[in-house]
């Protein structure tokens, strides 16, 4: 009796197991309520165009996803994923099945990680999931039902297939998004997405679901106004549908045997691709935006995009790549190699003060701040005085500074008239000592470095020959080139002469910082009469009878200005050319 009971019990269990977990037949396009899919099992659409199953991505990894792929394309191409953000590790112990009226994916621990998640009153026994010839996975109530409970076309990943749609739901006020992969190997959601603006009947591409950087232009009944390629498109037919529930675009191929798709790529561009079986490759039909560097923040923070040469992305000087650049994911941008000195501007730290590196012909980053400044030197000083300032630009009497990350920076061609010069703030250790690298601006003086050097020569002549005149209240205008006809600001001349004298003092502690030099030149700080440097006295004595300047505007040399050796000689017989016309 006991043997009979046990046998009956085991038979009942086996009956229930096979009744509710029947294996899929080879080539089936349907999962019914008493079936499941796992391991190497697949669904194949009726015409054989598409296939659904467990696929690892990348192909050599242990991350598996429920995917729809082309069945007749020799190069494995994924067009849809169920669990793009939550991969499984074992496809043999994971299962896709119907549960409570929904299609559900259970992982290797039999925990649901993805579901169609529809509130359905339909009995599970009648629900089926069917893979269509158009690549659309449909969950519906029975084989003969024409009304889907759920369909994959309503939840696209990065691919838009013919017959699919990118819609705006008027009832839920939500948009369908075509979202890029994170990188060329990771299918999780990336930064770039395509969606529909129903009110203007146009598609837009967003960065990080917030910043719009491209638009198709409005739909005019035949094509999008800013996508002229569509006028010559003899491969697919677009149509716009607008009803009380939703608005959407859809398209179909004139030749239904043509295999084509739209992809929101990791490049931040929407592309149309067509399969060419003869060469076994996808052929690019068109892409938007046309230029890679038009994609917002494509190279990430402190990365610069160069449309002229490849690779498109490079880190700025003093920065190194962050993230998976080798997988075409530049969103991590670049990180600073050496920390900034930041705020320590005493003379003892002049050698370690932050400096600026010049980048000409740049498309400037976003989110600049406008600062009041009357010169490039003042603009540089404003940046140095703010520890959070990372760069500045001065043009058309405007001073712009950037706080924090530099984003959407572009290197333009030399003949692009919109380019500006950007001065990037770097640690002093990024520059070679004793070398004047191209584009380097030291300290806050910026473009005025050459002027300060010349001011040293001004002092040599002023002190020895015009002492009674370069401050004690004499005629400062006698220092000017006679061709200027004394057309200058006397107070500016006095500041220039005095700051030059202070910059070459014997005692380093008596010399002003670069920030102070800028403030003196701008009239923010007052400056007193300097002491006469001993080293300069020796220099002047050793250069007696040396000709410093000649007038090249006439046919013969002007009368030479001589430096006298005795300190008591303070008047000069002729006036030296201190400042000349540019």
UniProtKB/TrEMBL annotation:
How far does the signal peptide extend, from start to end residue? 1-27
Transmembrane ranges, per UniProt, are: 440-463
Tell me where in or outside the cell this protein is found. Cell membrane
Q: Which residues form the Apple domain?
A: 342-427
Under which main EC class is this enzyme filed?
A: transferase
GO cellular component annotations, sorted alphabetically?
Answer: plasma membrane
Instruction: Report biased composition (Low complexity) as residue ranges.
Output: 563-582
Q: Does the keyword Signal apply?
A: yes
What catalytic activity is recorded? L-seryl-[protein] + ATP = O-phospho-L-seryl-[protein] + ADP + H(+); L-threonyl-[protein] + ATP = O-phospho-L-threonyl-[protein] + ADP + H(+)
List where Polar residues composition bias occurs: 550-562
Report residue spans for region: Disordered: 550-582
Q: Per its UniProt record, what SMART domains does this chain match?
A: B_lectin, PAN_AP
EC no.? 2.7.11.1
Task: Please report the name of this protein according to its UniProt entry.
Answer: non-specific serine/threonine protein kinase
